[in-house]
Amino acid sequence: MNERKPIECWLSDMDGVLVHEGSPVPGADEFIRKLRDSGKRFLVLTNNSIYTPRDLSVRLRGAGLEVPAESIWTSALATARFLSDQRPGGTAYVIGEAGLTTALHEVGYILTDTAPDYVVLGETRTYSFTAITKAIRLIDAGARFIATNPDAVGPSNEGSLPACGAVAAMITKATGVEPYFVGKPNPMMMRSAINAIDGHSESTAMIGDRMDTDIVSGMEAGLHTILVLTGVTAKDQVDRYPFRPSRVVNSVADLIELVD
User: Fold this and answer.
1) What is the rounded CA–CA span in Å between residue 211 and residue 136?
2) Is 214 a catalytic residue?
3) Does 260 have pLDDT greater than 90?
4) Of the residues 15, 151, 209, 214, which is catalytic?
5) Alpha helices by DSSP H, the chain
6) For residue range 97-110, what is the model confidence (pLDDT) as tens digits?
7) Which of 207, 172, 154, 200 is nearest to 47 (CA)?
8) How far is it, in rounded angstroms, from Cα 91 to Cα 87?
9) Is the keyword Methyltransferase in the record (predicted)?
10) 12 near 252, Cβ under 8 Å?
11) Annotated catalytic residue, options 13, 29, 117, 209
């Protein structure tokens, strides 16, 4: 690997890196505490657009991790930032929950079902056929199609649930219009996070447990990429991909000493 600058900023995925099935990964609390105490800029990233950062902060606290709301970056925030840059003060028809609607309101967007600039699809626990039909008709009428993330399924206690990517595919099939996905693996998610903490790609690390989202998007954004083996990717699977992380470690516990 080429010599890189010292790591000044840290980005970390949430599920599979800091928490696993609702419990903290061993060493995650010490890693987060070291980041806070060191004054290093950091963000915890998630493709989940359901919750606001404040909601997620409380949920993480329940799992034993103290992550302030301002240190959480969601696909909803990245989507809102992207739309604000593209069309400031625009309008959108939204399928999603508080994480997405709050983020859009905070950047000055108006939510409407009357000739919106965008149809924005996010995650929700209860996708409505009526809302999906409305989205299809608005896209047919000329609204641009944005989706927070391409994840096709999400977890639940009963098993897999259809997620944003699956519903987006339904809308695309009906309209012939492909959405622009803002969340991982789009490196736009990483770049928006870096900008949010005034970081630079050459001195920022991305920690993830998935080669096909966290690592590839971090690599495409020019970051130092670190794969942890506490999530979905096993060590023997790494070589199956045509790209490699900068580093592979067992867990975030192995990264504590890297935080100066």
Assistant:
1) 33
2) no
3) no
4) 15
5) 28-38, 53-62, 75-86, 98-106, 129-140, 164-175, 187-196, 216-220
6) 999 999 999 999 99
7) 154
8) 9
9) no
10) yes
11) 13
Query: What is the band of 1 on the pLDDT scale with cuts at 50, 70, 90?
Result: very low
Token code pair at residue 126:
């209860």
Mean pLDDT score across all residues of the chain:
95
The single-letter code of the amino acid at 24 is P
Strand partners, 10: 42, 205
CA dihedral of residues 101, 125, 217, 168 (deg, nearest 10) = -90
The torsion angles phi and psi of 149, rounded to 5 degrees, stand at -160, 155
pLDDT at 36 over 90: yes
Q: Is 13 a catalytic residue?
A: yes
**Tens of pLDDT, residues 163-187:** 999 999 999 999 999 999 999 999 9
| Measured distance CA(169)–CA(96) in Å, rounded | 16
When mean pLDDT is compared across 123-132, 157-166, 189-198, 216-225, the lowest value belongs to 157-166
Helix 187-196 and helix 75-86, axial crossing angle in degrees, nearest 10: 90
Entry pTM: 0.94
